[in-house]
Amino acid sequence: MSRNCLAWQVGAALLTALCSMSLATAQPVVPEDEQVKVARSIAVELGGKLKSELSTALAAGGPVQALAVCKTAAPTIAAELAAASGGKVGRTALRVRNPSNAADAFERAVLMRFVEDAANGADAAALEHSEVVQSEGRRTMRYMKAIPMQAAPCAACHGSEVSPEVLQAVRTLYPADEAVGFKPGDIRGAFTIELPLP
User: Fold this and answer.
1) Which domain holds residue 81?
2) Average pLDDT of span 121-136
3) Using a CB cutoff of 8 Å and minimum separation of 24, what contacts does 51-56 make?
């Protein structure tokens, strides 16, 4: 074997070893991972701000006032977060109060999975889903986080024993309402976020 051939083989072996080491230890940065963190924080912020607004309204004027606040505050908060993130931010459900929050096919499939997982014992508060989808030549990261029914403040307006006064207010504000009759722990809906990917 010639000296040049031997040097080439040793060099190739070293290069292979170095590449194997770097591949084994280096973790690629996946942009979608960062987008999931961003989407998760948006969902937490939307939920926190909305709960704060509703709690204040409930304390000041009861469930009827909270309904009126929710009708205006929820879309405003979602729009602000959407503008700040450059994506789409909102809430959806299988049974919606506001028809403009109706689930699309993707959201419906995820919500049905959330309901099934919760029925099988999963922690409803921990359920989330993220997926990269291709639409109209663009890659988008879609994220959803389940909204479990809580005893307070949700039950006053979404529970199985809503007062006649509240039901009347619901029918006035939302004639097509479907979002009553939930029990604590049920999947009431989900925060839904779409973020464009580079």
Assistant:
1) 28-196
2) 92
3) 51/153, 53/77, 54/153, 55/153
